[in-house]
Specification:
The chain is an alpha/beta fold. Helices cover 42% and strands 13% of the residues. Helix 2 runs antiparallel to helix 3, helix 6 packs parallel to helix 8 and helix 23 runs parallel beside helix 24. The relative contact order is 0.08. The structure holds glutamine and zinc ion. The site of glutamine has 13 residues, from loops. Belongs to the vitamin-B12 independent methionine synthase family.
Amino acid sequence: MVSSSVLGFPRIGMPCLPRRAPYIFHLTAFLPSRVGANREVKKAVEAYWGGKLSADELTKAAANVKKTSWTSIKAQGVDLVPSGDFSLYDHVLDHSAAFGVIPQRYLGHNLSPLDVYFAMGRGRQADGVDVPASEMKKWFDSNYHFVVPEFSETTDFKLVFNKAVEEFNEAKAAGVTTRPVVLGPISFLYLGKAAKGAAAGFKPISLLPKLIPVYKQLLADLKAAGAEWVQIDEPVLVLDAGLDYQSQFASTYAELAPVSSKIMLTTYYGRLDSNLSFVAKLPVAGLHIDLDRAPGQLDEVLAAIKSTHIVLSLGVVSGRNIWKNDFAASIKLGQKAIDVIGTDRVVIATSSSLLHTPVTLAAETKLTAEQKDWFSFALEKAREVAVIAAVLSGSQDAKVAEALEANRVSIAKRREFEATSDDAVRKRVAAITPEMWVRKSPFAVRREIQQKSLNLPKFATTTIGSFPQTKEIRAIRAKLTKGEVTVAEYDDFIKKEIESVVRFQEKIGLDLLVHGEPERNDMVQYFGERLKGFVFTQNGWVQSYGSRYVRPPIVVSDVSRDGPITTQWSSYAQSVTDKPMKGMLTGPVTILNWSFPRADVSREVQCQQLSLALRDEVIDLEKAGIKAVQVDEPALREGLPLRKADWKEYLGWSVSSFKLATAGVTDALQTHSHFCYSDFDDIFPSIQALDADVISIEASKSDLKLLNTFKQYGYSNQIGPGVYDIHSPRVPSEQEIKDRIASMLETLPADLVVINPDCGLKTRGWKETEASLVNLVNAARWARKTY
Ligand code: GLN
Ligand code: ZN
């Protein structure tokens, strides 16, 4: 028998399904009036933060969602249902809390354990307690953020509570015997960082001998509770860094295996590569590999484990995308494994946790039947896993045969659609030449021409694009969606908003103005909705961090632009002022990285299509009289592949895509770009190669060391390192900003420096925005006199 398994599930609760949905769940009846139809966990957690829900009620709400998840995954026919992957905020934070890895600054405030937990996740500023949140980082190459554990040589681990056992028992009580999920010790230490004040040269991995006994206890308890298998996640094994830990892997798992339930050592998001040589020798009962991201590794893995007893879990159903699985292809992979190691040693699984996919398609009422037939969300993927395993087990079940045939038809239809996509776009991509990536003249020449047309002062001040998205703006947009106001009424409102943002900037004396982006719901969604080739969901929420969820657009076909997208707003903004107005676009790489991409065409080609559409937009903006255009690429860095060997290829096409989008204009147009999380040390030549006239970077939280990199490489274009953090309502004093500018100028030449905040001001209120920007403008005036 081939078993089926799911590695983890979204944590948001089930959307309310339409009555005629094919699934029969026990739907959580939690807070229906306030919460609406979905994201119960988010809403419950936020209600708890807002004091509208007690800790007990929150626990109950969470229990309902967990129960619904377990029973519905099981109802799809999955044998190995995960537990322990649920979280109120983040699973890495759960792990830190369960092991007592709590930085001192969160203790001693007389907070309940739950409040200490949330304080670590999001900071706490109430009742005399004022602690910032712990650092968050991107979880591997996904858009999910985890809370970074902090370790030092004095860190002691103790099992404060055994979440794995508790949720195993909870699921059992709900009638589902699960396979608990535990983050592995080596990945846990790898993901952490040395706490401030840790000894010089301290490495978290040195704590392993102290950590192993606690894992032993955790695993022994799970075994005693009756868990047959445990899924231990060690995603560090798909990184180059995995190899550094080979001896630690050997010693750790030699200690854990004897006391534990059967260990399914789980890797995902990439290939094992050279790590396979030691992984295949570990004393584990099972190994899970990602065949969605790395189908090519199957042969070598089979060869390596053939003579062992290791059960191989084949991650054939993607946990990262939303496309229907091609059963024929998965069955082929499964059969190949069965031929080498036999049916009993094969498990069919999702490639990774389904954390990155929305919950269910059944809640989507606006997608066409044709579109819906292309996709599978988490619950549908659970069913896919079960069907593939059943087919490989030789099932004679009529329903399985029916599902197999239906999948064949769906996949064939999708292939047909792909083949007949937009010919004109494809021809245009094929005709791209390298000359199209390059500006007409080098930066030094452009700079003089731009200086004449823009006439900006030294230490020119500007902002990153958005201004506060007030309640009123969101309210009228909601009304527009519901048809309660006309497009003309809405446009009028937006124009007034733009005008007032322009007046504000004039009043306080900013130099290069922006229109404020009031018309945009989201920097990616806004463009996706106006380009051909995308579709959108109503309920396709995916956790980004904590209680923040995003609804990524889906690229379904060739991407193109019907006509100008932003020129009407930018021209309007320019028409009400004599100061130069900066156009504002989201870059091709960022649009792609924050969407679900197609699976049939490479990301490179999809990015080129986006670039061509944006190139036309930049050209149109210039034609409309706009003299500076910013093309934001905050997601360029985060899209870097996990293996260094793959960086060159990614950076090659992503850099050329940005250039393609921005190089179609005359020398007089000043191009800007913006980057959040500007950790550039290792990719600096690529940042330089973008050849943007001005880049602004999030920098206020860094110690400006990164500017040394700019200096070291002799960066010659203009640069605006953010002078204050906009992620907090705190107003920076004028002196603080002056000090910031002064320390920037220790490294950067004065004539290259532009003065701007860290990021867009969309999430801020007007009060602090006004006060902060006034200080920024005054500090720039001071700098003009001083340097
Ligand atoms: N132009 C965008 C804004 O201001 C940039 C957002 C960002 O910093 N990621 O909102
Ligand atoms: Zn930013």
